[in-house]
Amino acid sequence: MAEEKKEYWRWLESRWTNPNINWRQAKIITGGVDVGSVSTQAVIMADGDLYAFANMRTGSDSPNSARNAFNWALEGTGMAETDVKYTVGTGYGRVNVPMAKKAITEIACHARGANFMYGPTVRTVLDMGGQDCKAIRIDDKGKVESFLMNDKCAAGTGRGMEVFSDLLTISINDVGKMSMEVDVEPEPVSSTCVIFAKTEATGLLRQGWAKNKVLAAYCRAMAGRVNELLQRVGVVKDFAITGGIAKNIGVVSRLENLLGLKALTPRHDTQLAGAIGAALFAKGLLEKDLKK
Amino acid sequence: MLANYGYKDGSGDYFIAIDTDKCNGCAKCVDACPQSVFEMGDDDSDPLREEPVARVSGEQRKKLKYACAPCKRYLTTLSGGKTEETMKEIEKLPCVVSCELRAINHSW
Fold first, then answer.
1. Structural domain of residue B23, as residue ranges?
2. Tens of pLDDT along A59-85?
3. Per-residue pLDDT tens for A153-208?
4. What fold characterizes domain A14-112+272-291?
5. DSSP string covering A27-57, please?
6. Whether domain A123-263 has CATH 3.30.420.40
7. B87 at the A interface (CB within 8 A)?
8. How close does chain A come to B97, measured CA to CA in Å?
C-alpha cells in the first residue's frame, strides 16, 4: 500500500495570549486581521499593546479563514467579539473580512507593524510573504516613504520555498538551517522564476547534488533576488525583515551578507506585522471617531 | 511618498514611480496617457490622506512592459538600468511631460 504523503511545506499554526495584560482594565481594544495568500493572522491589541494573536493557514475561503483566526485569537481569553471595538482588515483578502469596519492596504499596515515590532529606528522593511515581496522605506513613526511590491511572480516568496521543501522532502522549518550546512557556497539557481528554479534543482539532484547544497543554491538565489528589489528603494539602517521567510536563516543570513547589514531581531512572530499594523490603525481610527 | 508600481521579471525592471508628496491630484497624467495606465484614487499606502492621488491602475500594474511599449520609442537596456540617453528619452514620455510637478518617473 502506498505510504501516506507527508506535507513537508506545512508550517505550524500558533496562538498566544499576553499573560501580563488584563484586558478588562484596558480602555481601547482593537483588532487587526491580515488575510494573506498563504496565512491569516488575527491580532487583538489592548491600549496599543499586543494582547493575543492567532496565526493559521488561509485555505480557499477568505471570509471563513478571517472568522476562524479571529475566533481562535479570542479563544480562552473570555473576550467576546463585541468587546473588540474596532477591527481593520488587510492583506489580499482584506475586502472579505466580515468583522472589519475598514480595509487598509498591506503596505501601510506592514510599515506600521514593523515600526511597532522593531522600534522607531527601523527605516527599511522587507516583507517576504506567501506570494509577494515588498520593500518599504519608513520614517520613525512608521509612515511609508517609499515602497515597491513584486507580486507578479513567486520568486523571492514563501510559496517558492514551499515548492522546494516539497521537492526535496524537507520540512519547511528545517530548510534554512539545512541550507547552511555546506562547505562551499554553490552558484545560485535561476532567480526569476520558481518553476525554472525547480527545473534546475531537479537537474542538479540528478547530477548527484546533496539536498542541502541544492537548498543553499536556492536560498542564495532568493537572497539575490530580494536584494535587487531592496536596492531600488534604497537600503538605510536599521533594516528589518517581516513575513514567513524572516524565519528562514538560510535566506536571512545570505541577504545580510549581500547587504553588509544585520537585520534586527524581532520581538514577536514575524508573520504578525500586517495584522499588528491593522490593529494600530484601528486604534487611531477609533480614537478619531470618539473625538467626533 | 514614492510609490513604485510595476514589477521585475526575467527581462528587466518595469516600474513607474509616483511621488505622492508632489502629486496634487490634477489628473493631467490620466488624460495624457494613451494606454490609460493612470487613474485617480485614494492613496493606498496612506489611509489617513483624504485628497485623491494619481496611481497606476490595478489592471495595468502587472503588464507595464507592454502597456508602455507604444510610447517607448527608444532602446531600453536589457538590465533595466538607465543610461544618459534613456533618461533623456524618459523626459519626453507623455505622462512625464504632462506632470508639471514632476511627480512621475520611469525605471526603464
1. 2-106
2. 787 788 899 999 999 998 889 999 999
3. 777 788 889 899 999 999 998 999 999 999 889 998 876 788 888 999 999 999 99
4. Nucleotidyltransferase; domain 5 (3.30.420)
5. S-EEEEEEE-SSEEEEEEEETTEEEEEEEEE
6. yes
7. no
8. 22
